[in-house]
Amino acid sequence: MFNDDQLMRYSRQLLLADFDLDGQEALSRARVLLVGCGGLANPAALYLAGAGVGGLLLVDDDRVEVSNLHRQVAFRADQVGEHKALALAAQLRSLNPDVPVTPVVARVDAAWLDQQLPEVDLVLDCTDNFATRQAVNAACVRHRKPLVSGAAIRLEGQIAAFDLRQTDSPCYACLFGDGTEGDLLCSEAGILGPVVGTVGTLQALLAMHLLTGKPVDPQLHVFDGRALSWRQLAPRKDPHCPVCGDPVAGEDG
Ligand SMILES: [Zn+2]
Prior knowledge:
Layout: H1 4-9, H2 11-14, H3 20-28, E1 31-35, H4 41-51, E2 55-59, H5 84-95, E3 101-104, H6 110-116, E4 122-125, H7 130-143, E5 147-153, E6 156-162, H8 172-176, H9 186-189, H10 193-211, E7 220-224, E8 229-233, H11 247-252
Parallel strand pairs: 1-2, 1-4, 2-3, 4-5
Antiparallel strand pairs: 5-6, 6-7, 7-8
Helix pairs in contact: 4-5, 4-10
The structure holds zinc ion.
Protein backbone atom coordinates (compact mmCIF):
# COMPACT_ATOMS: atom_id res chain seq x y z
CA MET A 1 0.00 0.00 0.00
CA PHE A 2 2.89 2.40 0.71
CA ASN A 3 5.77 2.92 -1.70
CA ASP A 4 9.43 3.04 -0.63
CA ASP A 5 9.48 6.83 -0.40
CA GLN A 6 6.45 6.81 1.86
CA LEU A 7 7.86 4.04 4.06
CA MET A 8 10.98 6.20 4.49
CA ARG A 9 8.98 9.40 5.07
CA TYR A 10 6.86 7.77 7.79
CA SER A 11 9.57 5.46 9.15
CA ARG A 12 9.93 7.11 12.56
CA GLN A 13 6.24 6.76 13.36
CA LEU A 14 6.07 3.26 11.83
CA LEU A 15 8.70 2.26 14.40
CA LEU A 16 6.24 2.88 17.23
CA ALA A 17 4.50 -0.28 18.43
CA ASP A 18 1.60 1.99 19.39
CA PHE A 19 1.23 3.21 15.81
CA ASP A 20 3.02 0.97 13.26
CA LEU A 21 1.61 -0.04 9.87
CA ASP A 22 -1.96 -0.41 11.14
CA GLY A 23 -1.93 3.16 12.44
CA GLN A 24 -0.39 4.46 9.22
CA GLU A 25 -3.04 2.70 7.12
CA ALA A 26 -5.87 3.99 9.31
CA LEU A 27 -4.46 7.51 9.13
CA SER A 28 -4.05 7.32 5.35
CA ARG A 29 -7.75 6.47 4.96
CA ALA A 30 -8.93 9.42 7.09
CA ARG A 31 -10.11 12.79 5.82
CA VAL A 32 -10.03 15.62 8.36
CA LEU A 33 -11.85 18.96 8.29
CA LEU A 34 -10.13 21.93 9.89
CA VAL A 35 -12.54 24.78 10.60
CA GLY A 36 -10.42 27.93 10.72
CA CYS A 37 -6.90 28.23 9.29
CA GLY A 38 -5.20 30.37 11.96
CA GLY A 39 -2.90 29.77 14.91
CA LEU A 40 -4.46 26.44 15.96
CA ALA A 41 -4.90 25.01 12.47
CA ASN A 42 -1.42 25.97 11.28
CA PRO A 43 0.52 23.50 13.45
CA ALA A 44 -2.33 20.95 13.49
CA ALA A 45 -2.46 20.83 9.70
CA LEU A 46 1.34 20.73 9.33
CA TYR A 47 1.58 17.72 11.65
CA LEU A 48 -1.38 15.89 10.08
CA ALA A 49 -0.04 16.44 6.56
CA GLY A 50 3.44 15.45 7.67
CA ALA A 51 2.08 12.27 9.26
CA GLY A 52 0.32 11.23 6.03
CA VAL A 53 -3.36 11.75 6.79
CA GLY A 54 -5.65 10.69 3.92
CA GLY A 55 -6.89 14.19 3.14
CA LEU A 56 -7.41 17.65 4.59
CA LEU A 57 -10.35 19.97 4.02
CA LEU A 58 -9.52 23.54 5.10
CA VAL A 59 -12.07 26.32 5.47
CA ASP A 60 -11.60 29.98 6.39
CA ASP A 61 -12.72 33.26 4.84
CA ASP A 62 -9.92 35.39 6.34
CA ARG A 63 -6.74 36.64 4.72
CA VAL A 64 -3.23 36.45 6.19
CA GLU A 65 -2.25 39.64 8.04
CA VAL A 66 1.18 40.71 9.18
CA SER A 67 -0.06 40.57 12.80
CA ASN A 68 -0.76 36.82 12.35
CA LEU A 69 2.82 35.83 11.55
CA HIS A 70 4.08 35.58 15.14
CA ARG A 71 1.77 32.61 15.79
CA GLN A 72 0.49 31.27 12.47
CA VAL A 73 3.68 29.38 11.79
CA ALA A 74 2.82 27.93 8.38
CA PHE A 75 2.57 31.37 6.77
CA ARG A 76 5.45 33.33 5.25
CA ALA A 77 5.75 37.10 4.94
CA ASP A 78 5.17 36.95 1.18
CA GLN A 79 1.76 35.34 1.82
CA VAL A 80 0.34 38.39 3.61
CA GLY A 81 -2.90 39.33 1.84
CA GLU A 82 -3.59 35.81 0.55
CA HIS A 83 -6.61 33.84 1.72
CA LYS A 84 -5.53 31.74 4.71
CA ALA A 85 -7.11 28.54 3.37
CA LEU A 86 -5.18 28.87 0.08
CA ALA A 87 -1.93 29.95 1.75
CA LEU A 88 -2.07 27.04 4.21
CA ALA A 89 -2.91 24.56 1.44
CA ALA A 90 0.16 25.71 -0.52
CA GLN A 91 2.46 25.11 2.47
CA LEU A 92 0.94 21.68 3.18
CA ARG A 93 1.37 20.58 -0.45
CA SER A 94 5.00 21.63 -0.38
CA LEU A 95 5.51 19.68 2.87
CA ASN A 96 3.81 16.48 1.69
CA PRO A 97 2.59 16.30 -1.93
CA ASP A 98 1.00 12.90 -1.25
CA VAL A 99 -1.73 14.39 0.95
CA PRO A 100 -4.72 15.80 -0.98
CA VAL A 101 -5.62 19.22 0.41
CA THR A 102 -8.89 20.99 -0.43
CA PRO A 103 -9.00 24.66 0.61
CA VAL A 104 -12.35 26.44 0.77
CA VAL A 105 -12.70 30.21 1.17
CA ALA A 106 -16.03 30.48 2.98
CA ARG A 107 -17.71 31.40 6.23
CA VAL A 108 -18.91 28.21 7.90
CA ASP A 109 -22.60 27.71 8.63
CA ALA A 110 -24.88 24.77 9.39
CA ALA A 111 -25.80 24.18 5.74
CA TRP A 112 -22.15 24.05 4.65
CA LEU A 113 -21.29 21.69 7.50
CA ASP A 114 -24.22 19.39 6.70
CA GLN A 115 -22.96 19.17 3.14
CA GLN A 116 -19.33 18.42 4.08
CA LEU A 117 -19.47 16.31 7.24
CA PRO A 118 -20.63 13.07 5.59
CA GLU A 119 -17.34 13.20 3.62
CA VAL A 120 -14.98 13.59 6.60
CA ASP A 121 -13.91 11.31 9.45
CA LEU A 122 -13.01 13.90 12.08
CA VAL A 123 -13.30 17.63 12.68
CA LEU A 124 -10.81 20.00 14.29
CA ASP A 125 -12.42 23.14 15.66
CA CYS A 126 -9.72 25.78 15.17
CA THR A 127 -11.98 28.82 15.19
CA ASP A 128 -11.92 31.91 17.37
CA ASN A 129 -15.61 32.56 17.94
CA PHE A 130 -18.45 30.91 19.83
CA ALA A 131 -21.04 31.07 17.06
CA THR A 132 -18.92 28.93 14.75
CA ARG A 133 -17.89 26.62 17.61
CA GLN A 134 -21.54 25.95 18.41
CA ALA A 135 -22.41 25.34 14.75
CA VAL A 136 -19.47 22.93 14.39
CA ASN A 137 -20.38 21.06 17.59
CA ALA A 138 -24.05 20.74 16.62
CA ALA A 139 -23.09 19.43 13.17
CA CYS A 140 -20.67 16.89 14.68
CA VAL A 141 -23.47 15.69 17.00
CA ARG A 142 -25.89 15.40 14.05
CA HIS A 143 -23.39 13.50 11.90
CA ARG A 144 -21.74 11.54 14.75
CA LYS A 145 -18.22 12.77 13.90
CA PRO A 146 -15.41 13.01 16.45
CA LEU A 147 -14.59 16.62 17.31
CA VAL A 148 -11.31 17.97 18.69
CA SER A 149 -11.86 21.45 20.02
CA GLY A 150 -9.05 23.89 20.80
CA ALA A 151 -8.87 27.45 22.08
CA ALA A 152 -6.15 29.81 23.29
CA ILE A 153 -6.07 33.36 24.58
CA ARG A 154 -3.39 35.36 26.40
CA LEU A 155 -1.34 32.67 28.21
CA GLU A 156 -4.05 30.03 28.54
CA GLY A 157 -5.03 27.18 26.28
CA GLN A 158 -7.84 24.63 26.29
CA ILE A 159 -8.27 21.39 24.40
CA ALA A 160 -10.92 18.68 24.48
CA ALA A 161 -11.82 15.70 22.32
CA PHE A 162 -15.44 14.61 21.99
CA ASP A 163 -15.81 11.19 20.38
CA LEU A 164 -19.33 11.78 19.14
CA ARG A 165 -19.32 8.39 17.37
CA GLN A 166 -20.19 7.18 20.91
CA THR A 167 -23.75 8.06 21.94
CA ASP A 168 -22.71 8.47 25.60
CA SER A 169 -20.03 11.07 24.80
CA PRO A 170 -20.53 14.60 26.12
CA CYS A 171 -20.44 17.36 23.52
CA TYR A 172 -19.00 20.88 23.54
CA ALA A 173 -22.35 22.33 24.65
CA CYS A 174 -22.58 19.89 27.62
CA LEU A 175 -19.47 21.63 28.89
CA PHE A 176 -19.89 25.25 27.81
CA GLY A 177 -23.64 25.59 27.13
CA ASP A 178 -24.99 26.58 23.74
CA GLY A 179 -24.61 30.35 24.04
CA THR A 180 -22.65 32.45 21.58
CA GLU A 181 -21.79 35.34 23.90
CA GLY A 182 -18.40 36.10 25.36
CA ASP A 183 -16.00 36.00 22.42
CA LEU A 184 -12.56 37.12 23.53
CA LEU A 185 -10.50 37.73 20.44
CA CYS A 186 -6.72 37.56 20.15
CA SER A 187 -6.89 40.94 18.41
CA GLU A 188 -8.19 42.44 21.65
CA ALA A 189 -6.82 40.26 24.48
CA GLY A 190 -3.47 39.21 23.04
CA ILE A 191 -1.85 35.79 22.64
CA LEU A 192 1.65 34.33 22.75
CA GLY A 193 2.48 32.17 19.74
CA PRO A 194 3.82 29.11 21.59
CA VAL A 195 0.62 28.90 23.68
CA VAL A 196 -1.68 28.59 20.68
CA GLY A 197 0.94 26.41 18.99
CA THR A 198 0.91 23.99 21.94
CA VAL A 199 -2.86 23.61 21.71
CA GLY A 200 -2.89 23.19 17.92
CA THR A 201 -0.11 20.61 18.12
CA LEU A 202 -2.05 18.58 20.68
CA GLN A 203 -5.20 18.80 18.55
CA ALA A 204 -3.24 16.96 15.86
CA LEU A 205 -2.09 14.37 18.41
CA LEU A 206 -5.63 13.74 19.70
CA ALA A 207 -6.86 13.48 16.09
CA MET A 208 -4.20 10.84 15.38
CA HIS A 209 -5.25 8.89 18.48
CA LEU A 210 -8.94 9.01 17.52
CA LEU A 211 -8.29 8.08 13.88
CA THR A 212 -6.10 5.11 14.80
CA GLY A 213 -8.58 3.66 17.29
CA LYS A 214 -6.92 4.73 20.55
CA PRO A 215 -9.34 5.44 23.37
CA VAL A 216 -9.45 9.13 24.25
CA ASP A 217 -10.95 10.28 27.53
CA PRO A 218 -13.50 13.06 27.21
CA GLN A 219 -11.50 15.51 29.30
CA LEU A 220 -11.03 19.23 29.10
CA HIS A 221 -7.30 19.96 29.37
CA VAL A 222 -6.47 23.49 30.49
CA PHE A 223 -2.94 24.79 29.93
CA ASP A 224 -1.36 27.55 31.99
CA GLY A 225 1.38 28.96 29.80
CA ARG A 226 3.05 30.85 32.63
CA ALA A 227 3.38 27.97 35.14
CA LEU A 228 3.68 25.38 32.31
CA SER A 229 1.06 23.33 34.12
CA TRP A 230 -2.03 21.46 33.05
CA ARG A 231 -5.26 20.70 34.85
CA GLN A 232 -8.01 18.38 33.74
CA LEU A 233 -11.76 18.57 34.10
CA ALA A 234 -13.92 15.56 33.28
CA PRO A 235 -17.11 16.75 31.59
CA ARG A 236 -20.19 14.55 31.86
CA LYS A 237 -22.81 14.16 29.22
CA ASP A 238 -25.66 16.47 30.20
CA PRO A 239 -28.98 14.65 29.66
CA HIS A 240 -30.61 18.08 29.30
CA CYS A 241 -28.02 19.39 26.83
CA PRO A 242 -29.87 21.42 24.19
CA VAL A 243 -27.61 19.96 21.48
CA CYS A 244 -26.98 16.28 22.29
CA GLY A 245 -29.45 15.64 25.14
CA ASP A 246 -32.36 13.23 24.99
CA PRO A 247 -35.47 15.35 24.20
CA VAL A 248 -37.56 13.08 26.49
CA ALA A 249 -35.14 13.62 29.39
CA GLY A 250 -35.34 17.34 28.59
CA GLU A 251 -39.13 17.30 28.96
CA ASP A 252 -38.88 15.43 32.25
CA GLY A 253 -36.56 18.10 33.57
ZN1 LIG B 1 -24.17 17.99 24.75
